[in-house]
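Known limitations

Structure tokens in this collection are predictions and should be treated as such. Users comparing against experimental data should check residue numbering before alignment. To illustrate the layout, the record for ATP synthase subunit delta is reproduced below. The input appears on top and the generated tokens appear beneath it.
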Amino acid sequence: MSEAVVAKRYADALFQLGEEKAILEQLHQELNIVHEVFQGNEQLFTFLKHPRINNERKKELLVEAFAGLSTDALNTIKLLVDRRRTEIIPSIIDHFVQLVNDAQGTAEATVYSVRELSEAERQQLEQTLVKRYSKNKFKLNNVVDPSIIGGIKIRIGNKIIDGSVSGKLDRIKRDIVTAN
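Generated tokens:
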């Protein structure tokens, strides 16, 4: 079974657990912290994958590292250690966050611009995206990228809306090359 399918199943189970216990938002916040730790620490993955370190020792480290987590989140991570599935933890969290966002009518977008967007620009862009995509709210992550020259590029999931100057120049370049 592919890792994506397995990750989705764990995420679905966590989501259902969060709904049943009415701790969905708490799990969402806790798992975001876990995701940041796993993304920023390659040594943790190496430790958790090491075949000579027994699972009890790995779980002890995780209990110490994530002492403030709820028992449900911590037990899920410990279960993944027992089943030798620690490499899919970030993928599980990504699927879980998507499920929570879908349930709340929220979407996440990454906005690339040459400078930091002002609060008024962020609000206007968020309102436009809310109307266009029929969502309750958009969480915008602004990334400053001088290589786009001007305009903005928006990434929502796997969809990219490119209104940047560099994107327009690339399209013109492709048109010229294909015309010859």
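For this record: Residues 3-21 form the longest helix (19 residues). The longest strand covers residues 106-113. Please report discrepancies through the issue tracker.
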